[in-house]
Amino acid sequence: MLGRVEQEPREPVMESVYYVLTYACHRKCRHCYDTRFRPYVRDGLKAVVGEGVDNYRRIIANLPDSMVYRDPGKPGADGTPSERIGRIIMAGGELLIDPVREALLYPALDAVREKYGARGARVSMQTTGDIVTPKMLDELRARGVWMIAVASMDDYHVGMEGEKRLPFMEKLKSMFEAAGFNPVPDAASTRDHLLEDGPFYVFFGAQPGQWIAELWPRGRAWENGLSKATMETNFCARWSGAKNFLNHGWAGSEVAIEPNGDVFPCCLKTKLPIGNLTEERLVDILDSLKGHPVFEALNAGDPLHMGESLGWSADDFVEASHTTTPQGAPYANLCIGCDRFHEEKLGPLIRGLRTQRLSASKSVAATAGGRG
Question: Is the pLDDT of residue 154 over 70?
Fold first, then answer.
């Protein structure tokens, strides 16, 4: 367990970074939140993998210098927040298909270890699990993967409906454990696996009662009319929503990153990115948004009031949150209002903040060059 701290974190830190390395996948699931996740062939596959290959080094270089964060919800004996190691969650697409695995995933894992050391970040990866082999598991463990999350355990994945997935899960369990991966401890065990070095495995999916059970109004889930979210479903206030995204250094802070380096305050992604990690540091982007009423509302998990400083009342936001599905059914969710607010109001603001950051960065670089 890490020690206790008495003052502000020494360096900018995050609890979690959700990093999509590629859109290449061997499946085209009807509930997927992004239509870009699909099979690619020949030049298309080369291009989509190449995007991740071209950008991963700059993206990882511009992540926080440390992945250790403070958690007030888990105080030490003296009452001070404990220090914990944050997670970098690598996802796709499917990271284990050829050529993603060798050309992109493994080099990215090596780059993370080079930046943070062997135990400076908890590296998790998501997979559908259906192409996992013992050799791959050995290679992943050798590269320091802390957790493998099998993300296909729901009725939306072909072949995984109901009890059909049970033999598949048993096969994977045997394979994982033979390779030295252990199941994430049950909550009743009182073990805190976030403090353990692992490696672990876990199964999850869009099942009733889980965090994405209603499905985001995005991608093929939207095209197929599968989202069951209502105005009472506030994805923004859930884990992997925008809540706490600005609070780097503390529990709950997470952002999502696309293969081209675009950064978003939530996993399902706002209509516009807040910046790009191929050109600037993540912490600089986040700090430029702090104090602005729009982004502070998102940080509070309260999208309903994000527009008030720019002339959108809560009533305006509710009205903008209503639409119809591609099938013609009425639909309303706060994510729809957020999309429309971004389209109508936030573009110039986000571009202006980016211009200010880049200009400031150039000034600092010029000053440093002059002193050299």
Answer: yes
